[in-house]
Amino acid sequence: MCLHRELCTQGCQYSKKTEILKCGEAKSHAYALMKAVTSFLTFNFFFSIFFSLSLSLNVEAGHEAVLTCASTSKLCLVMVTWEIKSNTSCSLAYRNDRNETKLNCSERMMWKYSPDRDPALRIYPVNLSDEGNYTCEIASDMGNFHFSSSLSVIVPPTVTLTSDKSRVAVCQAAAGKPAAKISWIPASNNSSEEEFKHGNGTVTRVSYIGWVNSMHTTVTCLVTHPAMNQNLSLDLSGKKHHSVIACHHALFLLLFQ
Ligand SMILES: *[C@@H]1O[C@H](CO)[C@@H](O)[C@H](O)[C@H]1NC(C)=O
Ligand SMILES: *[C@@H]1O[C@H](CO)[C@@H](O)[C@H](O)[C@H]1NC(C)=O
Ligand SMILES: *[C@@H]1O[C@H](CO)[C@@H](O)[C@H](O)[C@H]1NC(C)=O
Ligand SMILES: *[C@@H]1O[C@H](CO)[C@@H](O)[C@H](O)[C@H]1NC(C)=O
Ligand SMILES: *[C@@H]1O[C@H](CO)[C@@H](O)[C@H](O)[C@H]1NC(C)=O
Ligand SMILES: *[C@@H]1O[C@H](CO)[C@@H](O)[C@H](O)[C@H]1NC(C)=O
Ligand SMILES: *[C@@H]1O[C@H](CO)[C@@H](O)[C@H](O)[C@H]1NC(C)=O
Ligand SMILES: *[C@@H]1O[C@H](CO)[C@@H](O)[C@H](O)[C@H]1NC(C)=O
Ligand SMILES: *[C@@H]1O[C@H](CO)[C@@H](O)[C@H](O)[C@H]1NC(C)=O
């Protein structure tokens, strides 16, 4: 809504030639005063927004991302545009005079609210290809404003802990973004790590630990990641039990066949 409309002699009109909104002549001093007050308020608002947008946004794949711009409800809004530079380039634009949105972005991107009040951008569900830079541009009677933010998509890894016959435990954190950190309890100086980078930006890390001379009955693999922390334990004595039971079972079958 253009709240200043009633204060302008001609209201808010979109000029096709200059692509700029003309707000007519100010009706009275009241308008000039109100404009000065709102400029001051919006300046403070934009100032505070600036800091929140200087931080990049981290969102987990599959979740909802909301990229904030600024409130437009107190502006005589002409147009608001989101320019998106991710794996592909696209834009989402709203023209206030026509109450119309044009876009060539994915159908997963839309306004979170009504763009004439709050042109926040909603992405749902977020996927890896959405990572990139998002710029919101507001064209209004009080000038044009730009806000940039960057979106990082994080993906929790799939964690497994296994062991093999040569008494090596293998902890794998597959296809995480960023790469997960793997550590062990008890800590060992005899562990090694491998890393595989995938084309979609995710990373698989595999950590190996040998426990030939270990006195411990369990090993625990600790996986640390911005989207999740997970501890997996392997019972080393339990493994022996399993093989003993399996052995008895085989003997039983042999005897009674
Ligand atoms: C959207 O349009 C812009 C400019 O017209 C173009 O550069 C961009 O490639 C288009 N994006 C898609 C996803 O079609
Ligand atoms: C603008 O269009 C939307 C639907 O596209 C509608 O819900 C809304 O009421 C319209 N707003 C105005 C001010 O006409
Ligand atoms: C992301 O979503 C687009 C559709 O908007 C789809 O084409 C693409 O395959 C998806 N990418 C991933 C990595 O899931
Ligand atoms: C980026 O797009 C290319 C093709 O345009 C595709 O092969 C690639 O998987 C995409 N990357 C991501 C992270 O979605
Ligand atoms: C986003 O901006 C940063 C810094 O300005 C740049 O390094 C990066 O390549 C941009 N990303 C995309 C997808 O354009
Ligand atoms: C691990 O550290 C112990 C002492 O804490 C040392 O005796 C042993 O040689 C080290 N092993 C390796 C593989 O570095
Ligand atoms: C990324 O690529 C890896 C390896 O191809 C695949 O296992 C994983 O599922 C992909 N992750 C996403 C989120 O697309
Ligand atoms: C270290 O681990 C390797 C297997 O990764 C194993 O062969 C070796 O015996 C282990 N050394 C010690 C001191 O535990
Ligand atoms: C994993 O274990 C460590 C050390 O015992 C502990 O500090 C941490 O809280 C545990 N994390 C989870 C997710 O259980």
UniProtKB/TrEMBL annotation:
Q: Under the GO molecular function aspect, what terms does this record hold? A: signaling receptor activity
Q: Which Pfam families match?
A: C2-set_2, V-set
GO BP term, example: regulation of neuroinflammatory response
- What keywords sit in the KW lines? Disulfide bond, Glycoprotein, Membrane, Receptor, Transmembrane, Transmembrane helix
In which compartments does the protein localize?
Membrane
**Cellular component terms (Gene Ontology):** external side of plasma membrane
Principal location listed in the UniProt entry: membrane
Q: Which residues cross the membrane?
A: 36-57
Carries keyword Transmembrane?
A: yes
Ig-like domain residues: 59-152
Write down the SMART domains for this protein, in alphabetical order.
IG (SM00409)
Q: How does it sit in the membrane?
A: Single-pass membrane protein
According to its UniProt record, which protein family does this protein belong to?
Belongs to the CD200R family.
Q: What is this protein called?
A: Ig-like domain-containing protein
